[in-house]
What we know:
Layout: H1 3-8, E1 10-14, H2 18-25, H3 30-39, E2 42-46, E3 49-53, H4 56-74, H5 81-89, H6 99-107, E4 110-112, E5 117-119, H7 123-134, E6 137-141, H8 148-161, E7 167-172, H9 188-206, H10 209-217, E8 221-225, E9 237-241, H11 249-256, E10 264-269, H12 283-290, E11 297-301, H13 311-328
Helix pairs in contact: 2-4, 3-5, 4-5, 4-6, 7-8, 8-9, 11-12
Amino acid sequence: xxxxxxxxxxxxxxxxxxxxxxxxxxxxxxxxxxxxxxxxxxxxxxxxxxxxxxxxxxxxxxxxxxxxxxxxxxxxxxxxxxxxxxxxxxxxxxxxxxxxxxxxxxxxxxxxxxxxxxxxxxxxxxxxxxxxxxxxxxxxxxxxxxxxxxxxxxxxxxxxxxxxxxxxxxxxxxxxxxxxxxxxxxxxxxxxxxxxxxxxxxxxxxxxxxxxxxxxxxxxxxxxxxxxxxxxxxxxxxxxxxxxxxxxxxxxxxxxxxxxxxxxxxxxxxxxxxxxxxxxxxxxxxxxxxxxxxxxxxxxxxxxxxxxxxxxxxxxxxxxxxxxxxxxx
Length: 329
């Protein structure tokens, strides 16, 4: 059969609830337009029945994405353009598992927080969540915008609210690896808060602000620069080191050896974005090699296609990576 005839083939999918179908399509069928653009199909909604035209594999992926989005609506979840693009992404790749089965597996991996249900948007995010749940130490490595920090915070919040840990400890190298922040105005909290703001933002996105502040005041949630970890043992805690590419090897060793009984630790960062002085080794790149293959240590790697921000971000990252290859060549 010719490719032209294949493209004219059509599959139909029916949905039961008229109210949900309107949300599934989006305003002016905007959600369907995204699926058409990403997957190369044509979707014609007629009441509760959608006609999907295009190559067989593309039709299967589109139907799988529609089923996943409809299931979200049935669970009372809401979604926007980002979630629609994510549903389309989850059907891409060369895995042997069928698109429908893959989406069902990934969509079933979720974390429920007081303010929202957080689900994996890409297969690599699903793998990351699984590794955090099954390992005491997990590294999340890859470009900005892939959800490394956000999902790590969600995992920590889940552990705290379910009583698996007694506190959350969130840390970052402040300003730079040398921690030279004395020239900034204000007390220590005022000095470091701007550099830890993304961690606060993630917490407030999952829990109500007054609840977060109460838990911080009680010491159940601690947000501090990596230098504050020296000499401590972090037991029964969910511990996250963010922007770890800006930690030196000595700082990284110090931080990892804070791991105490009943603790879960996640280290996130992008080795290509180190702000360390030229010629200084990043502790993240160093430790990934040192701990490769060590039992109970997991590594989850993300790529540009895992970016869940504006779709242009993925293309920007790809362009920079291509330029770096040309320069090194």
